[in-house]
Amino acid sequence: MYNFLKGEMESEARIPERLPPIDDFAFGARESLSSTDDLLSDGFSFTDSPPSSICSDTNEYREPRRDALVAYPGRSSGTNQLGRTYSPGLPLSMSEREQIVGLYKSGWKICDISKRLCVTHSCVSKILNRFRTTGSVRPKDAKEGRTESPLVIAIRDYRARLGMSRQSEIREQLIADGICSRENAPSRSSINHILRTKLDMRKRKKSL
C-alpha cells in the first residue's frame, strides 16, 4: 500500500512538459504580423515607399523608374512632411502625374494616394482638379489664363501696324485714341518695360 501511494505521488510530482520560450512566441507573432502587413500594403509601406509605376494592362505595381527621382543640380531642395525630397518650383514628372490619376480612377482616396507616393495632399488635389477641368495632367503654364490689358494690346497694335518704337510717340497715340488720359498715361519707362517684356524688344547696342 505504501509503495502504491508513493508511486502516485511520484507521478503527480512529474515535471510538466516544457513550453517554448516567450521569445519564440514573440518572434512568430512578429512574423505573422509582418506577413499580414505585407498582404495589406501589397509589399510596400505607406509612409516609406517610393513612388511606383502602374501597368496599364494588369494594374500591377512596378518599381519606380530611376529618372523619376533624379536630383537636379543647382536647384535648392526641401523635404515635405512625408519625407520626400523635392525642388521648389519644379513640377512632378509626367509619369507620377499619370500614376496619381490612375490610382484615383482605380478607387483610391486622395489621402491614400498621398501616403503611397509621399506627395502632399494639396499637390494631389491640384493635379486631380486640373485633370477634371481640362482632361490633361500636364503642369500649368505660367502664362496660361492671363489676359493682356488694353494698354498692352494697343501698344502691340501700334508696333505691328504703325511701326512705332519710340516711347513718346506711343504715349501720345494712346492719349489720342482715348485709351488713357494725359493724367493716367503710362510713363516712358513703363512703356519701355512693356516693349521689353511683353513684345520682346531689346535695346540694340550701338556698333563701334
Describe this structure as you would to a colleague.
With 208 residues, this protein is mainly alpha-helical. Among the domains are: 53-134, Winged helix-like DNA-binding domain superfamily/Winged helix DNA-binding domain (Arc Repressor Mutant, subunit A, Orthogonal Bundle), CATH 1.10.10; 150-197, Winged helix-like DNA-binding domain superfamily/Winged helix DNA-binding domain (Arc Repressor Mutant, subunit A). It is 47% helix and 4% strand. It is built from 8 helices and 4 strands; from the N terminus they run ααββββαααααα. The strands form 2 sheets. A two-stranded antiparallel ribbon has the order 1-2. Strands 3-4 form a two-stranded antiparallel ribbon. A hairpin with a 5-residue loop joins β3 (78-79) and β4 (85-86). α3 crosses α5 (121-134). The longest helix is centred in the first third of the chain and has 20 residues, at 22-41. The radius of gyration is 35 Å and the shape is elongated. It starts with a helix and ends in an 11-residue tail after the last helix. Residues 22-72 have low confidence and may be disordered. InterPro entries: Homeodomain-like_sf (IPR009057), Paired_dom (IPR001523), PAX_fam (IPR043565), WH-like_DNA-bd_sf (IPR036388). It holds the Pfam family PAX. Its main location: nucleus. GO terms for molecular function: DNA-binding transcription factor activity, RNA polymerase II-specific; RNA polymerase II cis-regulatory region sequence-specific DNA binding. It is found in: Nucleus.
